[in-house]
Please model this.
Amino acid sequence: MITIVRNGEVYAPEYLGKNAIMIAGGRIEAVCKNISLKVPEIQVREIDASGKLVFPGFIDAHVHILGGGGEGGFSTRTPEIQISQLLESGITTVVGCLGTDGITRDLRALVAKARSLEEEGITAFVYTGSYRMPPKTITGSIQEDIILIDDIIGVGEVALSDHRSSHPTFEEFVKVVSDARVGGMLSGKAGIVNVHMGDGKMELDYIERLESETEIPKKQVIPTHINRNPSLFQKAIKYAKGGGCVDFTTSTVWRFIEEGEVKCSKGLRAMLEEGVDIRNITFTSDGQGSIPEFDRDGVLIGLGVASTKSLYKEVKDAVQIEGIAMECALRVITSNVADLLKLKKKGRISPGMDADLVIADSQSLDICAVIAKGVELVNVDMK
Ligand code: ZN
Model:
């Protein structure tokens, strides 16, 4: 079957104007002003995207797909994600990771969960390891995991500058990054290391030292949660201006923002105003991670669950509130992520790419339909 999406304003993510998109076999075959197919034997599904915007499917490269949390005891573990949560967030590619808990949550289960999401229609990868170093792996080595297991594209999230980190030496950290790099080189994958940045004093120290003390390229690591406090955010601006990539975490609660966390849409504008290259910025949701609530005495009083919906919400806010151009803001959840993670068929609307699309209302920007690998999996308000 062939699907043609007509009359939508296409952001590839660069603005292409009104175009028709032809999809066959799960791939984008053509993007052009007009497509006419007059072969009676071929079944064609027409989708009318008049009054709509068409984006590449979103990529969320940091989701606790197996659930996370547990830092307040077993009852504070968060649940596995459901495919419906990802789809209603416009996410057609996800990277799953473990977090603090690499004991009761297991990499084999993580791979199985990723494969279940694939079976349900989206694209899913995972990171090997968890917060701790040396990372636990499936095969016994980071290189072998990345080279031999298709689902595994890097290491993460390893924790630095955090009381829950394993407090590795710089040399231990370098070893992990260099193993990931060589694993990635030998398998044609990114071999990236996703680094959880905590609220600790070390901030980006190890990541900055990678540049001054090793030959490892900056984009081998991606520090995440860089918007969690103003001091770390300032360091991240400097690092990104120098050519490093930085990742914002979109899920939050208002109390954190009141306490100094930088709201992603505002932080994106601040970085662009500081002259950071947009290509060095990505957003992820940290979906299904726990958001602990403490009272004034530091006693845990409740636990929220991070939502993948925050990913696109912050891009919308960047456009609607901060006045950033859609084609610029969109990149942080599409092409930038695909480039960083070397996902060659993802993040763009162009012939030969996987047919992952999000169709949104041109006024409200709300999601109306989601197509993953050529299949329409969400249709809220479309013919
Ligand atoms: Zn984290």
